[in-house]
């Protein structure tokens, strides 16, 4: 039960039995960038979620605001105060800690990608289903109002029949010690930001879990350790829709999404990590006239947290069930298998070649 102000005396709470308690969250890896930069505030802003425990292996003094702090992830998962676990760990750690949480009967919000490959994602989904707990991949972009409007415009035929889509998410990633540069940690540009590019393209194509995989070609610029610093691909679907994507840790900052159809085109910048104030989609009609399609803004991380907690409480059906995450991971596997690899730094430009 939760209390709210009595209409007769706002200082006196009246117990209300139809308002569920907030979901009690624990965070594995409380010093991670995405948690400290975005999810911590999202949990705090949500009236349906409460962080009751955090864990960090690297900083015993982490997150001083958390009621309960652990220096071991297993201790947090075993904490009886924790109902659900948020996992922002490196990609290779998603599966083992999701399986541990499922075995303990805890719901899971896991950072993207759900796993480095589709087989791992399938094992995670099956384990959570067997334990009767929610599993949700922390893909927040669809929870921004502009993203929702984009999907409605496509569905309502603003572009007519979609013909081609392009998606690009690039940024210069200069920290060589980061786990994203490690093959054994599930590093690489495709795994790190590929979901942002792939998901809207697959959605526009009408591709769903269980459909045949599209035809693909791909190229990857790889480091000496085998990590893709840049990944580009072309996808062709049975409907005739085609799509191109580019993910890179070497290129300048860029986030663009565009779909061209028989009646028009839609384009958006800062497409995948929009802020509260990002509200405009640029449309070009068949006659060449460009229009600004402006709608509401919003806080996508909080909206995602609110949705996941509503799913856990049984008030909503999941907008993106685990099968959708597994299906996307299948496409990622397909792209990596198809990719022609090229050295990130040509031999003639390497430092040892100039000595």
Q: Give the mean pLDDT.
A: 92
The share of residues in helices is 25-40%
Basic shape: globular
Low-pLDDT residue spans: 1-17, 350-355
Fold and architecture overview:
It is a single chain. Helices cover 28% and strands 28% of the residues. It contains eight helices and 17 strands. A nine-stranded mixed beta sheet has the order 16-15-14-13-9-12-11-10-17. α3 packs parallel to α4 (118-131). The longest helix has 17 residues, at 189-205.
Task: Give a nutshell description of this structure.
28% of the residues lie in helices and 28% in strands. It has 355 residues and is of the alpha/beta class. A hairpin with a 7-residue loop joins strand 1 and strand 2.
Q: Which descriptors apply to this entry?
A:
355 residues; 28% helix; 17 strands; nine-stranded mixed beta sheet; six-stranded parallel beta sheet; disordered C terminus; disordered N terminus; alpha/beta
Topology:
Blueprint (H helix, E strand, L loop, with lengths): L1 E4 L7 E4 L6 E6 L4 H13 L3 E7 L12 E3 L2 H6 L5 E4 L6 H10 L3 E4 L7 H14 L3 E3 L7 H11 L6 E9 L18 H17 L9 E8 L5 E9 L5 E7 L5 E8 L2 E6 L10 E6 L4 E5 L5 H13 L9 H17 E5 L12
Parallel strand pairs: 3-4, 3-6, 4-5, 6-7, 7-8, 9-12, 10-17
Antiparallel strand pairs: 1-2, 9-13, 10-11, 11-12, 13-14, 14-15, 15-16
């Amino acid at each position: 039960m939760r209390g709210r102000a009595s209409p007769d005396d706002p200082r006196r709470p009246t117990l209300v039995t139809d308002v569920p308690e907030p979901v009690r969250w624990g965070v594995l890896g409380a010093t991670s960038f995405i948690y400290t930069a975005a999810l911590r505030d999202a949990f705090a802003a949500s009236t349906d979620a409460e962080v009751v425990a955090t864990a960090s292996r690297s900083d015993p003094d982490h997150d001083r605001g958390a009621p309960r702090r652990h220096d071991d992830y297993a201790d947090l998962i075993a904490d009886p105060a924790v109902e659900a676990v948020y996992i922002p760990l490196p990609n290779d750690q998603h599966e083992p800690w999701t399986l541990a949480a499922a075995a303990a009967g805890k719901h899971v919000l896991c950072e993207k990608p759900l796993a480095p490959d589709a087989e791992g994602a399938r094992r995670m989904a099956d384990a959570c289903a067997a334990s009767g707990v929610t599993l949700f991949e922390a893909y927040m972009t669809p929870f921004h109002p502009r993203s929702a409007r984009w999907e409605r415009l496509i569905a309502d035929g603003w572009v007519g029949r979609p013909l081609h889509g392009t998606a690009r998410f690039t940024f210069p990633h200069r920290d060589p010690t980061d786990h994203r540069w490690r093959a054994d940690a599930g590093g690489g540009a495709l795994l790190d930001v590929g979901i942002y590019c792939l998901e809207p393209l697959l959605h526009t194509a009408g591709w769903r879990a269980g459909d045949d995989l599209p035809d693909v070609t791909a190229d990857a610029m790889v480091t000496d350790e085998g990590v893709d610093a840049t990944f580009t691909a072309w996808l062709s679907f049975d409907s005739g829709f085609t799509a191109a994507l580019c993910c890179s840790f070497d290129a300048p900052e860029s986030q663009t999404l565009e779909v061209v159809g028989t009646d028009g085109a839609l384009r958006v910048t800062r497409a995948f990590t929009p802020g509260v104030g990002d509200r405009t989609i640029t449309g070009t009609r068949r006659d060449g006239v460009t229009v600004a399609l402006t709608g509401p803004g919003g806080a996508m991380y909080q909206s995602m947290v609110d949705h996941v907690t509503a799913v856990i409480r049984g008030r909503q059906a999941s907008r993106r069930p685990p099968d959708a995450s597994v299906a996307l991971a299948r496409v990622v596997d397909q792209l990596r298998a198809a990719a022609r690899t090229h050295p990130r730094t040509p031999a003639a430009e390497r430092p040892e070649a100039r000595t």
